[in-house]
Write a structure and sequence with these properties.
about 110 residues, mainly alpha, 3 helices
């Protein structure tokens, strides 16, 4: 039984880590998108070559795709973590650091997906 619990805790840790990492990805891609949009705005103001601007707009589109792709992956990871944690809630100590970490992660992400 104890061995089973340590496996479950390991899974919980992995699922929590995965959700946190994907959250970082989303944030990074969103920053990248904003930076790229600013760059394009400046290029337009500076009267840069229309082909160069078009190229940068393609980059922006790709970055926006990365944002929605990583948000989709984050939502899957969040729902997976939330479902897994709810099956564990009666079996694990509420003071367990991995449990607390998972709950904090779920609480931080919930507003994005509800």
């Amino acid at each position: 039984q104890a061995h089973h619990m340590s496996d479950l805790k390991k899974q919980l840790k992995i699922k929590t880590g995965s959700a946190k990492r994907l959250q970082k990805d989303v944030t990074a891609y969103e920053k990248e998108t904003a930076k790229q949009a600013e760059k394009i705005e400046k290029m337009k103001q500076d009267g840069k070559d229309v082909h160069d601007i078009k190229k940068q707009e393609e980059v922006l589109t790709e970055t926006r795709d990365m944002v929605s792709d990583s948000k989709r992956r984050l939502e899957v990871a969040f729902k997976d973590l939330e479902a897994f944690a709810s099956t564990l809630s009666n079996a694990i100590s509420q003071d367990d650091p991995d449990w607390k970490d998972s709950q904090a992660t779920i609480e931080a992400l919930r507003p994005l997906f509800s």
